[in-house]
What does this fold into?
Amino acid sequence: METAIKTTKLQRTHKRKPRVVVTYAMLVFFAIVALMPLYYLIITSMKDLTEASTQATMFPHSFALFENIQFVLSHPDYNVIRMFLNTMFIFVMKTLGTVITCSMAGYAFAMYKFPGKKIIFFILLSTMMIPGEILGIPIYEFMVNAGLKEIAYIPLWIGSWFATDVFMIFLFRQFFQTVPKPLIEAARMDGYGELQIFFKIVLPLNVPVVVTVILLYFVGTYNDLYGPALYISDKSNWVMANSISIFENLFQSGSSSYLVPWNYVSVASLIAIIPVILLFSLMQKKFLQSVAGVGIKG
Amino acid sequence: MTAKLYKPTFKQNFHRNYKYFLLFGTIAIIGFFLFYLYPIIRTFILSLTDKTIFDPSANYVGLENYMYALKSDPLFARSINQSLIFAIFSGVFVLITSLMLAMLLNSKVKFIGVFRTIYFLPFIIPSFAVGAVYKNFFNPSTGLINRLLEFLGVVNPPLWYISPNSALLTMIIISSFGFGVKMLVFLAALQNIPQEYYEVAELEGANKAQQFFKITLPLISPMLFFNIILITIDGLRSFSLAFVMGNGQGWPSNSTLLFPIYMFMTAFNMPFRLGYAAAMAWIFFLIILALTGINFLLSKFYVQKDVTLT
It folds into this structure.
């Protein structure tokens, strides 16, 4: 019996050699595809205006990185610190709201049993199927009529304070279900109130989910063109999403309106990406943990 | 041990649980009424009127908006069509790439962690930045793609996003890079499959394809279902990429006009035809409901019963 197992193991390692090579070849190939946009962004930001807007060289012939950075930073509309801080303000308000309210809702569904809970949870989950298009008009109407449209970006984050991100409720619930019940019972015995138990014991135990919210919301806030296009009109309120189009449309009024200064666009894009990459590299371990956790705990 | 001394009756337990549920869950219920239920009802009421945003008086027009959208608005039909085409093709692409990459990343080789990070990069790069890169890649005269095609001997390379014939296709190709989160969901599911299953299968002489169809696919079928629903809705609701590629108005000549873009233009540009946009939104909502329903029905055939999602 033992020898039989041994031989099959041996056979397998023997057979696996070429397979490993194929795996690596594919891994590397797709890694190149995945890295291509970033690579191209970096080299384009080094090219001078003529090369960047007329040739698609894979290795730059010219080197104008510093001039490009200087040009981008000195453009009167490109107030990058302000745009970044505006974006961060929206991001912080959205994330705080979601972490507090969605985690509480998730906890409510994970911990307390009573008849009818399943139906309520199902109704709540089914809102994931509702397209934002059908919700946007009345909210826009309300914001305009109430005069809140352009005050402190309220329309962009107020929903987050009412646990409207149902996916996050689901995610929090998945994690809270695995918190050992005896732990909570023990805390109750020690005289902790329910809110105290939640904020002092349960939430700190589930940092990876919070990290996931932070990361997804960071990318999400950055990516959102819909909200800013709808609710931001004043230049001083621009967010990072607006920063690229300044340079894309740089020559739109001139005689060479078809020309896009890709070098400036790339520099602006890179500047916009830096914070995302920093945050991701800081948090990626916890993030991947928590995504893996959805499956394990699911 | 002290727990045994005091055991609440069922009724007490019920009351306590209910109270605590409300303590934590009320905000979500209020949110449901304010941000889901009210807007849906209000949108329906608006859809029966000819309301524009600055016009306080709105006339009741019955189902006229719906009739107009379905019968005499070529742009509405076109945008819905294009959204469906986009959602289906980009959905299939994303599904295949994310599953394939997840399986690759699930292989037990060295440095796999590095690859996982790299594969996740396209997701964290904001789409407005990516949009600019791809516009550059696909630029017919200066872009990399056509240079490669010319190098390979293609005489008349496509005009990609410049031409109305290929703009939607270009967008579908680009969007297949949006596999990030779905890839991770698949990866998590794959990692849950006990390795022994494959070892037994291999001992019994099953080849890789058989292993995939008999073990992998059935065991990840709940995640497949989850991802298909997410991908369909994502595709139909796709806004940012189309906004960047089509300069916010479906350029060139409405070929990248997806439904969300058209609705945005109708509702929030002059003359702010909220009533009509609301009717379109309701039709769109019903389409999504129908597709989700179909997916639920079909899931009976491909989702394994004893593997559950929640």
In short: Chain B has two domains: 1-47, 65-302.
